[in-house]
């Protein structure tokens, strides 16, 4: 009765799965190849010391070292570090595959875990690992974001509600959300961002765990195996001294004043420190509390609330004194890339190794950059000015993003040097993605910290040696001298097709033509290891001529119409790879149509490439002007295509809501997908007003203006921080935020904020002179709101060519609808500011918003290469296509489901695991396996929270689908709480005026309708109706669906007049959009008749009661209670979820196929697929 057949009418839901461009047929991964990855799982039982044992399922290709790490991550054995594995009497080497061990494949294999002898290094590693486990029990590090830890609010929301029953539906439960979640509320509190359960108590195991003052052991004790001495203070206030020996840990007889290293009585020797502490401290069983800490991404917007640190943690700083051996990063990274890649197993092992090495490199580079800015690393050239200094730390080379020796003077000075680092990183990423054997790039990471950009790079073997010139390709002096090398030409020519780089000639210092296959600044170096390295890839992509101002150029009319070319602050603006591909595809379509028009037999021979040196002002000369003019014309056409094709395509995708950005990061992602650089935001904003139905793009306008403001603020803030002394960072940052976001005019500092200065009045009176305050000593303290907003308007005009007609944050809020809390979030993520988690009052006129204590920390903002598994990415793209086109691809669903199931094993070590889990959950839900869907989506939510952030739009979308899966499983209150949290996060990120809120309000209205809370349901459904009318149109099918939902709620409430009104609106829309003969129109018409009949019966009953006449009793109208299957059907319709009908074993279409039977059938085909794959490979050979 609720018209479930209208599924085909609705467009894709808000935030659909993003399907990337399909790969070419030559690049596609064979379907059968996916079956060649994991062998059947082996069940291994590990016998622990004592009587405990545990069973693990592992693959035959698993290395023993990987099993070793898995045991260190397991809850039972996480406190053990120095151990080995034995199979029978044989100790298994760590590099051995488990499947190659004789007898391991027979099933039920028993392995024994034995403790090894400790060395000083092993002991320190063990202590540091135990210290990390103790710290994981305290929430302070998670709140502060220390070591990448963060909280998982989904666990808090879901805990305690797993046993909810459908029978509670009629119980008196208050489903009302907090007031700040209700429609129309303007309050945006921050404290609910990290919900804290009242029943959660953080565990404290020890009071003190330190290195003893009796270290190091004397020579005679070293002869007895003593390695280290520890001092422990237990919860019972017992002071204990522990000896770390080669055999393990035991209590000694030393005290704070007497050294007696002999074992104490009773003599207890344990191989693990945790086992020893569990025996000597009866208050806690340490092993039952310890859980491995998860490495996650830092949350910038929030941090430690007041009182979050419940107690002192064990001091583990002394255990970090261990200095690990410096790693040869270049050899590790290049060696991992040189691993064989012939079979799928070899490629997966290679991808995992590269990912692990790259992740370690980025982590060390980040720590090194922070150490450089904090002054903890000695520079190589200490006599030079600070901005010219260079550093080496942990075998990594660090430099600062300033114009050293005026190398970028002609390109824009410091602005060009700052941009060059990012351009070089993009070039490294492009060549790494092509992955040509024999051509090597340097590991690179950019770290923006406290206003300074630090470039971290791996050292090329021999590059610091000054007795030889290793540059054999390219130019080292901006084109004055140019050299080439046949080996580099051959390697770079292999990349030219993928990167659209034209092989071209330039003139050297002797007017001799030199052939290049890259930009002239690209340098080729043969390292001492014999490898070919390419450096300085900042001009990998061709220049963007719209931002290369020249009075001599003939500018196309399309560009002149937009006011181009513009003078940019640097000359390194380049086109994106996505734009080049879109431009080539557009030209290919034109050529294909022309070939077909003239009757050409072939229309596929088309290849466009660009010369990156064609518009360089510094010293590059060409032997032929004709070819140069042709390349200039091609570049101008590409720049014009960005304005005339890509930006309109971007706005069309936003208009039809195939792209629905919620914040600056998602807007940037949408821009980049269409090949549009962020510097074109001003053009996008101007074009928004020319689009028909521009009111449907109000959210895009608001987010774009917020992005222009936040990026302009970031540019100003970077320079602002460079004049701040380290002791005044919190005061300076809070002052800057007050000038930016506060409504108060009392933001000027009138006294010194230094904590060390005396502030008591009587001391000031006794001083003979008045000490000048900080506000008069520091330049940063002289900043006023008027000055700051003047700079912001100037920056927005100069960089983005967009005029901000506002002089304060109050004007921005009033004119553009930008939220202060959203602006604070954007600025915090872009600059690394971490503020205290509390509710800020922005509209106070008498006191500033921020104080010094609100600025807790500043985190480095890191840009680095994002390594992905190529095979897994292709499988993911194909699986996404199947999910979206499943109802038209019945015969392929089986195979693609198998691919995605295997994808879980491929992506186990990559950041894309959340996307894989999300897709697996979606498939399981489509196949009506709700239990599996819920389990997978829960894991996807936790991954999104910790990888993307607790307030990221992807996390909000994951919350939405998790709520849907919970509702399908009968846990309706949990579903409701998740939807409330998704709405709260959406309000923080983008505000209430957003299409995503319409989706959430529709779902909330449906869930509350099912829980019989009609008044609250109507509030959310009316909000959804207003938003769908604005962002989808009053004649859209989604607007009709919103009217229909309101009609069903009004019917259940007994208000038939309102129900008739809304259903009649829905009927009129269906009639106009799909015609009178469509099923949806007919169902709506029947529903109208039913409502009319019920309304007539109600009126007759009321009239009969008031008439006081005798006669036959008129039956009352039947008010139908909504059934949960009906509500679930409407929820699926709202979210755009369509169940895929699959063929059963008889070939007949059925609505349900058991997923277990489906997977069994796929496994049966695995052998056949492998055989087919081998045949194909032999034929190719």
Automatic annotation (TrEMBL):
Residues 301-548 form the Clu domain. Keywords: Cytoplasm. InterPro entries: CLU-central (IPR033646), CLU_dom (IPR025697), CLU_prot (IPR027523), GSKIP_dom_sf (IPR023231), TPR-like_helical_dom_sf (IPR011990). Residues 1-36 are annotated as: Disordered. GO terms for biological process: intracellular distribution of mitochondria. GO terms for molecular function: mRNA binding. GO terms for cellular component: cytoplasm. The keyword Cytoplasm applies. CDD domains: CLU-central. The keyword Cytoplasm applies. PROSITE patterns: CLU (PS51823). This is Clustered mitochondria homolog.
